[in-house]
Amino acid sequence: MGEGYNDQLLIGTEVESEHMKTWEWLAQCMRDDVMPSPHALFCHIAMDHIREKTDYYTKLEKEGL
Q1: pTM for the predicted model, two decimal places
Q2: How far, in Å, CA of 18 to CA of 60, rounded?
Q3: What pLDDT does residue 24 have?
Q4: What's the rounded Cα separation, in Å, for the pair 22 and 45?
Q5: Domain tally, the chain
Q6: Which residue from 4, 15, 17, 50 puts its CA 20 to 30 A from 23's CA?
Q7: In this structure, are residues 19 and 45 in contact, taking their beta carbons and an 8 Å threshold?
Q8: Could you give the CA distance from residue 53 to residue 64 in angstroms, rounded to a whole number?
Q9: Which residues fall within 8 angstroms of residue 19, CB to CB, at 6 or more apart?
Q10: 21: domain range?
Q11: What is the pLDDT along the chain (65 residues), one digit of tens a residue?
């Protein structure tokens, strides 16, 4: 791994903690023995991003990402 990898991993782990609500939802699905659809999972992830920034996807599109 390149120099700074650990720093990037620490930063990224903190940033990605925005998905805690989705993790909690998945944990509940597991307790209920329910496999969510891919669409439901992707919807939860999208909601995580939108909660963080309401125009998250508009900005990504404008940046060409």
Answers
A1: 0.78
A2: 17
A3: 97
A4: 6
A5: 1
A6: 4
A7: yes
A8: 17
A9: 45, 48
A10: 5-62
A11: 777 899 999 999 999 999 999 999 999 999 999 999 999 999 999 999 999 899 999 999 999 98
